[in-house]
C-alpha cells in the first residue's frame, strides 16, 4: 500500500527521478512558521510606518488638494504596503532559495516546476498573488487534499508542485569508500551545497547505484562528466585530486549533512 503520493521526473540524461509530494501536513507546518516570521516583519514595518505616516500626515494636511482626504490616502498606502510585504516575502524567498521559504526549509519541503526544474520569479509571483484566494475559506487546503498532485490554486496557475527536500535513501545499495568519508567533511566547508537540488542529488545517487553494471569506459566518462557538472553547481573552482567516483560519493554524503 502506498501511503504517500509520489511524482516522477525524467532528466535530460534520461534518468527517471521519483520524489514524495509534501502533503497537507508538511505544508501547513511550513506555512505556520512562515506566518510567524512574516508577523514579526509586519510588526516592525507597521511600527516604522506609524512613525513615518504621522509626519507625512502633517505635511499633506497643508496641501489644499488632498488635505481633507489625507486619512484615506494613508489607509490606502498602508494596505498596499502590507500586501506588498505579504506577497514579497514568499516571492523573495522562493526565488533566491530555489523554492524554499524559511518555513519550507525548516519543514524540508520545496517548490519545483511540474517538470522538476527550479521555480523562477514568474512562478513564485503567481503562487504568492493567488495565496489569499487559496486561504479564503481554506480553498487551497481542500484542493491539496483532493488533488492527485496535491496542488492548490496557485500551483495550478504557476505550474508547480511541492515536494519533500529528499535526503538519501537506500545508501546500503552501494559502498561508500573511506576516502570519500574523509573528503565529504571538507566539502561541507568549501562548497556551496545549498545550490544542489533534490534532482541533482538523485542523479548522483542513480549513478552510484548503477555504476557496477556499466562498462569501465562508459563509467569513467559519465563519472567525469557528472563531477564537472556538480563542481559547477556548487561553485567549486577546482575538483579535488581524487577519482571522480570518490568525489561523487563525498558529494552524496555531504548533501545528507548539509543545512537545508
UniProtKB/TrEMBL annotation:
UniProt-recorded name of the protein = RDD domain-containing protein
Cellular component terms per the entry's GO annotation: membrane
Q: How does it sit in the membrane?
A: Multi-pass membrane protein
Q: Where in the cell is it found?
A: Membrane
Question: Key word Transmembrane helix present in the record?
Answer: yes
> What UniProt keywords apply to this chain's record, in alphabetical order?
Membrane, Transmembrane, Transmembrane helix
Q: Which residues cross the membrane?
A: 28-50, 70-92
Indicate the principal place this protein occupies in or around the cell: membrane
RDD domain sequence ranges: 21-159
Amino acid at each position: 500500500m502506498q501511503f504517500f503520493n509520489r511524482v516522477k521526473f525524467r532528466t535530460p540524461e534520461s534518468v527517471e527521478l521519483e520524489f514524495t509530494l509534501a502533503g497537507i501536513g508538511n505544508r501547513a507546518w511550513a506555512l505556520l512558521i512562515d506566518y510567524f516570521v512574516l508577523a514579526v516583519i509586519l510588526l516592525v514595518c507597521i511600527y516604522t510606518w506609524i512613525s513615518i505616516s504621522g509626519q507625512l500626515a502633517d505635511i499633506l494636511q497643508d496641501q489644499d488638494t488632498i488635505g481633507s482626504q489625507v486619512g484615506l490616502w494613508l489607509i490606502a498606502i498602508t494596505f498596499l504596503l502590507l500586501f506588498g510585504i505579504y506577497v514579497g516575502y514568499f516571492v523573495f524567498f522562493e526565488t533566491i532559495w530555489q523554492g524554499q521559504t524559511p518555513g519550507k526549509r525548516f519543514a524540508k519541503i520545496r517548490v519545483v516546476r511540474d517538470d522538476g526544474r527550479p521555480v523562477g520569479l514568474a512562478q513564485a509571483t503567481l503562487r504568492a498573488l493567488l495565496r489569499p484566494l487559496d486561504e479564503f475559506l481554506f480553498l487551497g487546503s481542500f484542493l491539496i487534499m483532493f488533488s492527485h498532485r496535491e496542488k492548490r490554486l496557485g500551483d495550478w496557475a504557476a505550474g508547480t508542485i511541492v515536494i519533500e527536500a529528499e535526503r538519501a535513501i537506500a545508501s546500503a545499495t552501494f559502498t561508500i569508500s573511506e576516502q570519500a568519508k574523509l573528503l565529504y567533511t571538507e566539502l561541507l566547508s568549501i562548497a556551496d551545497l545549498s545550490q544542489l537540488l533534490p534532482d541533482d542529488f538523485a542523479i548522483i545517487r542513480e549513478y552510484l547505484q548503477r555504476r557496477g553494471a556499466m562498462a569501465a569506459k562508459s563509467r569513467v566518462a559519465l563519472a567525469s562528466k557528472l563531477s564537472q557538472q556538480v563542481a559547477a553547481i556548487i561553485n567549486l573552482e577546482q575538483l579535488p585530486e581524487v577519482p571522480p567516483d570518490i568525489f561523487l560519493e563525498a558529494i552524496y554524503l555531504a548533501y545528507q549533512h548539509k543545512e537545508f
